[in-house]
Amino acid sequence: VIIIPGSGATKLGRDIALSMNVKTLEFDTRKFPDGERYVRLNGRCDGDIVSVVQSTYKDPDGLLMEYCMLADAALGAGASEVLGVFPYLAYLRQDQRFKDGETLSSKVFAQLIESVGTTKVFVVDPHLHRLSSLDVLFNVPAFNLSAMFMMAEYASKNFHLNDPIVVAPDEEASQWANKVATVLKAGYVVAKKVRSGDLTVEIDFSGSNLEGRDVLLVDDIVSTGGTLASITTKLKKAGATRVIALVTHGLFASGAYERISGSGVDHIITTDTVPNERSIVSVAPIIKEALDDAL
Ligand code: R5P
Questions:
Q1: How many Å lie between the centroid of ligand 1 and the Cα of residue 17?
Q2: Using CA atoms, how far apart are residues 191 and 194, in angstroms rounded to an integer?
Q3: CB within 8 A of 77, min separation 6: which ones?
């Protein structure tokens, strides 16, 4: 077994290899003057099962292309099998043709991953909303790993939680809120979100009195920070003592920190699926466990 850490998950890929006590295979990459990408592995992997670990942020298209090239290079260098490990897999939010003429991005992304010979796929907290499982997207076995249990344990150990309640900012986040609530042995409520543009969300959170309670706000992605800022403001108005956000993928797109800073959120915990300054919980153990089970 060999791990190739892609450019989107260099440290995490190496951490996974270290924890599994297996080798990494590094590679050279550069861009030609016309923008085309070049990839060359620094060794062979004859007969090995190769796991390419790639997160697809900040450059989802380029990092997917790099994944495809690495998978192809590994097979060309003798790999017996290529597993695709995607700590963060982009494009899953476009899981339907909302308007005529739109592309089904999630399906296109999945097909490209499969087209280079990937035999198994692992994704941490994929954004599954209207799709019931990853099997709807992939024909090869696809595993949904969740960081929510580890983040909940982190929160439980590191904050003296007072009468905690878990809040999902929208319906799709209820699956993750449920996991956190189970660990904390707490209840959870689901708010209603209406997105009217990339940067504009309206969240309805009424009817719950949170006076004196700590709120664990749970979501899969923080991108523009609009969701997190909007719901936090409402939670504080409803009396929450502290709002502690547990979010798997901290993308923090341009302007996110500014948007969030005035909202009153007390702590933001994210994982290292996308390295950022709030990457506090590592997903290496859950990926190690999933790979161990699959091998
Ligand atoms: C979408 O429904 C996701 O679960 C997140 O709530 C969303 O991607 C967060 O995006 P933003 O930070 O831009 O509001």
A1: 31
A2: 10
A3: 41, 43, 44, 45, 46
